[in-house]
Known about the structure:
The chain is an all-alpha fold. It has a domain at 40-100. It is 66% helix and 0% strand. The protein has five helices and no strands. The protein has helices spanning 2-18, 37-47, 54-63, 69-84, 88-100.
Amino acid sequence: MTSAVRFVGVMLFVVAVIGCGGGRETGQVVQPPPPDAKFTLEKVADTGNLSAHKTQLHDELQGLGESDPEMSQELLGEYEQLTSLSDTAAIQAKAREMADKL
């Protein structure tokens, strides 16, 4: 009986030590850099087509807040002005002005 108890004790110890491993190691997930707001603004400035880039531009300007919150807030304010414009030339001029700040 004592050898059975000793055997169970040793097995519990072995399971506790070996069985509590960390499992598989996971690699770090590398996030691709967000698209460049300056590039998008330059496309809008060249084409005057804001509707095709509206959501993307907004997301990029918000993403800028991680590295430069002040600039992000300023450009998001100007983004509101940009989206209120309807004249193609005015959209192009405002987009160029915003791109020059980046």
